[in-house]
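#lab-general

N.A. 3:47 PM
ok so I finally got the sequence cleaned up, no stray characters, all 269 residues accounted for. can someone with queue access submit it? mine expired

B.Y. 3:52 PM
send it over

N.A. 3:53 PM
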Amino acid sequence: MNAESGDTIHGSKQHEATIGKVAIITGASAGIGYEAARLFAREGAKVVVGARRQTELDALAVEIGECGGTAAALAGDVKDEAYAKALVELATNKFGGLDVALNNAGTLGELGVSVPQMALSEWENTLATSLTSAFLGAKYQIPPMLQRGGGSLIFTSSFVGYTVGFPQTAAYAACKAGMIGLTKALAAEYGPQNIRVNAILPGGTATPIGRTFANTPEAIAFVKSLHALKRIAHPGEIANSALNLASDLSSFTTGTALLADGGVSINRT
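B.Y. 4:20 PM
back already:
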């Protein structure tokens, strides 16, 4: 992966491991989800892309189709249980089943606010968007995976709340840490039925959400300095890690919190 251009080098084994799979990707209108949808499709997966913005999703589906891939788009709110069900129904009705789900949608919530000053409504909205949505995804994604004899369920978590604590990020950190607990419980429960469940933990990444935090030259320089690699990730780099978890190349990997964080969790320089 060239972090500047976003170009991806595909290995033949990884391509062969993903051909024929059906994947749902949420948060696909931008950032990591957008790059993951394009990458999964290039590697032969049929993708169902979800996010709130239908126009952006439709454009993504057209782009994938023009590049020889296959995609279907459905807009909605990941906090809505009916939407989680509808995404799965679209995958199964249009493509015949479900093999992979990348539950990537989420929100930072209200940063810079301490818990005593945080409104309950803000706490609940952040958890609903970033954690309850993961539960709802899994609730409807697991049954069709069982019908296929297995699958790969992936959640986009974070190093925040897991290896690092930042002040005034309580709701976001709680969501992302809770997602790792959900990952481990589901991995233990469904491992005997060949469903692998993993969380991917990006570091600082050049996404629209990431830029709301690092939105000045000084802030960007600070975020870069936190990482051992001294840079911010291109979202395509995180998509590469998600593809590995989605593919049969990670066939003996489950219950993990996979750090794709540029060394932010170990860096002290």
